[in-house]
Design brief:
mainly alpha; 2 helices; YfjT-like
Amino acid sequence: MGGAVHDKSEQKNYLQARFEMVLTMLESINPEEAGVEEIDRLIDMLDDIENKCKQFRHDWKE
């Protein structure tokens, strides 16, 4: 998704875009056909968002 994000506004926009990607993926999953791979991918995406939140939280303390 691009380069480093240092500005608080850019960080918020980055997180919002990532959440929108998760929501889009959730909406596109057919519950009758979804498998472990789709669930694992969602978990990975949420883990990535969590890690970014922790990184940004550290940046915001400064």
